[in-house]
Amino acid sequence: MQDSQPPIWLPRLAVHGGPRFLQIADALHAAVAAGSLKPGDRLPPQRQLAAQLDVDLTTITRAYDEARRRNLLEGRGARGTYVAAPKAASTPILDLSMNIPPPPDGVDFDDMLKQGLSQVLMRADNELLMTYHLGGGSDTDRRAGARWLEPMFGRVDAEQLVVCPGAQAAIAALILALTAPGDIILAEPTSYPGLRAAATQFGRHLIAVEADRHGMVPEMLEEACRRHKPGLVYLNPTLQNPTAITMPERRRKALAGIAQRYDLRIVEDDPYWLLAAAPPPPIATFAPEQVAYISTLSKCLTPGLRVAFVLLHNPQERERFLAALRSFALMAAPLTAALATQWILDGSADGLMQGVRNEARLRHRMAREILAGRHGGTGDGLHLWVELPAYWNSSQLARAADSEGIAVTPAEAFATGSGSVNAIRISLGCIKDRGRLQAGLQRLSHLLAQRPASSGTGVV
């Protein structure tokens, strides 16, 4: 006869304690840490435990899978599931270099993904999900894009939107559509590396325009327009990557006015607007005919969707942009675009984004406390910019950090011209566990406070 009582190591499941499978996995983790469960102990069969807890079998399966992911359990075939022996200690890299959203607390992303895909497959024509979409997204996808852009612009005409497979594809297609080989593209001295990669690949020349603590300097942009007659200018005005500067409204209006006077096209890459606290209106608000506005889901939700929305008011430029996009990317994958649309329309995207925003702000507070004023920025977004003491240079510091098991990005990776400031970018989202993030920031802070072992030799 089977025992009808749950194991003593498993406390009563809380009604408001979050997903039940995670409660069970957390209880397993705590029991192993406390010694209540020891390596080699056999766990109850999944069906038996499901009956004891009065939950469905799927909940137990997911709990055991999560415990295996944490290296707590191991399966031994027909003999059952056992507590795993501790693995040899290892020190995985603490990645502060990849700018991705942090996992939000209290959001069951696995469940959200399964529910979203279930709704997509139930409501959509599966044949349409598996065929070509050459018009820059379906009508429904563009309507979802218009909904996504409402916080920035209010009502948006969905016909002016193009759905793209990510912001990098959008930037590349805009370069192809709005410039010719040999044309000049203007950008700030430190800027998104994907711009430089695309410009170089397509034979365009990238020239840096001076920036200050508010972003690109209008007088310098006007001088560059007179001198170089550029094809376009690239701006990332909100929580700029990498400096984390948010350009104030007055500066945005000034740059928009210059673009209108010189009939200059601006690519406004704005992935972090929804993560910022009370950001100014986009530059596209002040010069809609001059600006191609890009909003990606990669920084607010998840990079795996590979969906970005591009707002282009000029219909001829929109057609040229679509033709350029089709030359190398053709379309956003209909299935992931449909998932993004489902999440936007049913409110899941907004809930996930709020969770990402809250988690990012918590991590910024942690970084401010540990780095003690070493960095600039407003406490929003996914990254911060740390200017280094004179005894370090950014490449040297990045190598030294790597030897400590920490990955950071040196300023040289973002340099538009030949010069570069002495700084590093720290990304706060890639490390899932806050405790590991805290440890990485503390180790980095200690490293910043030390002088290199020898100023005459490189750090290896």
From TrEMBL:
UniProt keyword Heme present: no
Record's InterPro entries?
Aminotransferase_I/II_large, HTH_trans_reg/aminotransferase, PyrdxlP-dep_Trfase, PyrdxlP-dep_Trfase_major, Tscrpt_reg_HTH_GntR, WH-like_DNA-bd_sf, WH_DNA-bd_sf
Q: Could you tell me which Pfam families the record lists for this protein?
A: Aminotran_1_2, GntR
> Can you tell me where the transmembrane regions are?
none
Question: Which protein family is it in?
Answer: In the C-terminal section; belongs to the class-I pyridoxal-phosphate-dependent aminotransferase family.
Cited PROSITE patterns: HTH_GNTR
UniProt xrefs under SMART domains: HTH_GNTR
* UniProt keyword list: Aminotransferase, DNA-binding, Pyridoxal phosphate, Transcription, Transcription regulation, Transferase
- SUPFAM superfamilies linked: PLP-dependent transferases, Winged helix' DNA-binding domain
Start and end residues of each HTH gntR-type domain: 18-86
An MF annotation (GO) of this entry? transaminase activity
The record ties this protein, via PANTHER family, to: HTH-TYPE TRANSCRIPTIONAL REGULATORY PROTEIN GABR (PTHR46577:SF1)
| Name of the protein in its database record | PLP-dependent aminotransferase family protein
Which residues are in coiled coils?
none
UniProt key word Hydrolase? no
